């Protein structure tokens, strides 16, 4: 077969590209997907008891007009539920509202002082040097007290790498100082300082979890344009030819890849071995999603909560979402059930015992006072996603700069969460727009922004 445009992967990036090509009036394209369903990491799953699970807490933060309009078109105005972004940190046996640094009045006097002393230290001895890594950025931005109390332990649980292995580019290059005046005022006047307010809302699909969105986008693209169970085994770069696992050959003029870049380079014939080797230096972490379906109702304090952060080491998870609060349809019967979805990161630097993870999670949920007893658990779900977070490692940008241009002579462009490996533009909206902008580039000669200039994209369209 011959197609002018071929897309590897039917996650938001691949579907975004396909949708845009169709919108431009182009029909000469195909999406190749190795799984038997579309959606990639934005898929949802229904377990045997009827509980719906996402690949971790997926919420929409978009400010891209294009993305917002497509979401509305996909599910219709009635297809969404709107929620306040209520997020908390569980620490020292209590909930502290997010952002943590503005609400340290909730902590014990000893910990509160430790955090405050660190902020004062940064005011007395400002660090004006550009941070060389994420550790330095944390220390310069939050001070040593907040770093040790929250930022270091929490970020290790999320990223599964020590902060000195990570760059400071993804959080912005500017060193912002935590606002001493605001923090002190909140303590003295016993003031809450939540990040959520009337405008801090997010939307979630009424039905089908996050995956429901992408199933609908798949319909808009046209199902006949997505070839399922089609694993790309090899790309012969100089011949612009793809070989699928079943032996089928597909010729392309322009190819967009969304599978993980390190794995993809291994499949491209024609790339020099040095480039392939270099790409193997990209770091990532895995995500374990453990869903816990429960009988009864959540306790009152959880009724309006969206997600919670867990910096302490008694629990395997870094984040827990009260998933039944996102949509009543995420559980079999909302009058009798509720659900918690947990995320646990994993890497060589932070191994996880997958065998005991469900039990470890339930034990910690009881310790953290989210559930009362293991007897309330009526369903459990565990899935491990080997590629969960593309780590913004210290060496990442150098690798991307060397590897991505080597693909272009073969008509190959690598985009998306793991295709382009830029965490700062790897949410659903960013990913979709990377696909849309790629289509604009190759079919209409419009330059891309999101993938090459993440900071500009985030500044232009919000985070
Ligand atoms: C734990 C977690 C929490 C998240 N939370 C949020 C959130 O709150 N908000 C948000 O907006 N986003 C969130 N995301 C990000 C969201 O999942 C991604 O933005 C999105 O799925 C990335 O889309 P993609 O198309 O780039 O890649 P993917 O979704 O990874 O899709 C790639 C596709 O390529 C296919 N593929 C791989 N190899 C081959 C092959 N050889 N041949 C053919 N096909 C192949 C895969 O099967 C997959 O379908 C989260 C992600 C994770 C892991």
UniProtKB/TrEMBL annotation:
Organism domain of life: Bacteria
The Amine oxidase domain, residue ranges: 13-339
An annotated Gene Ontology molecular function: oxidoreductase activity
Similarity comment text for this entry: Belongs to the carotenoid/retinoid oxidoreductase family.
Protein name: UDP-galactopyranose mutase
